[in-house]
Design brief:
Length: 222
């Protein structure tokens, strides 16, 4: 029998708002400075991946992993983050992705708990700008966990803080690494994006516009 549903745990970037595009623009500018070609396709590999791991992947693309010391890599990541922070400073509640506001309000009106599990160190800033910080019961960001996605730690920590069993949670993600983290945490996984990217998700929606609490709960309850 399915465990009665208690909570939803959302990813931030690419699910609640499209900061994925700003991450892309900031990484692309840094890559160009380093003489590395970085495409939107390459960027798909970075979704849900931590800042330092993303930098390593970009340096690998350009065959430049050995060219920088640890301090220089920290400085490169900091430079990207400063650029990213300038890009996100104009975020407002208008930047919530389609149907997200309604979904969150439906979840709350059903008495379900609401958490966030983000790989971003900027999650609190972005949530504040979206006017969403106080809507969520808890937010776990990259500053609070040791292991990045696909490790389940960020989702497990969110469930623990909400005081619910992982099996009673639904995780929502736009990244393959994130869906893997949800499944490794023992949760039900809703993915947003192209079907072929999410073989292990329990439901896949092409965009957030299609998300509806009723449909998700129906599949969850089997
Ligand atoms: P930051 P999420 C992730 O956030 C992004 O998907 C990923 O592209 C980014 O590199 C990572 O956060 C780190 O972000 O540099 O702001 O700490 O999708 O898990 O909410
Ligand atoms: Mg994401």
């Amino acid at each position: 029998m399915t465990t009665p549903l208690k909570a939803f745990i959302f990813d931030l970037d690419g699910v609640i708002t499209d900061t994925a595009e700003y991450h892309f623009l900031a990484w692309k500018a840094l890559a160009e400075d380093l003489g590395i070609t970085f495409t939107r396709e390459d960027n798909e590999e970075l979704k849900g991946v931590s800042r330092m791991d993303s930098l390593e992947k970009i340096l690998e693309l350009g065959g430049r992993t050995k060219d920088f010391s640890a301090e220089e890599k920290e400085a490169l990541a900091e430079k990207k983050n400063e650029h990213y922070l300038t890009l996100i400073q104009d975020i407002t509640p208008e930047d919530l992705l389609p149907a997200i506001k309604e979904l969150i309000s439906d979840i709350k009106s059903k008495g379900l708990k609401l958490g966030m599990a983000s790989a971003s160190k900027n999650a609190f800033t972005v949530m504040e700008s979206l006017g969403m910080k106080s809507e969520f019961d808890i937010i776990v960001d990259a500053k609070t966990v040791v292991n990045g996605k696909p490790h389940p730690e960020v989702f497990l920590r969110a469930a623990e803080m909400l005081g619910v069993d992982p099996e009673a949670c639904i995780g929502v993600e736009d990244a393959a690494a994130g869906v893997q983290a949800i499944k490794s945490a023992g949760m039900f996984a809703v993915a947003v994006g192209p079907k072929e990217s999410f073989e292990n998700a329990d439901i896949v929606y092409a965009s957030t516009a299609e998300l509806s609490l009723e449909k998700i709960v129906e599949v969850y309850n089997g």
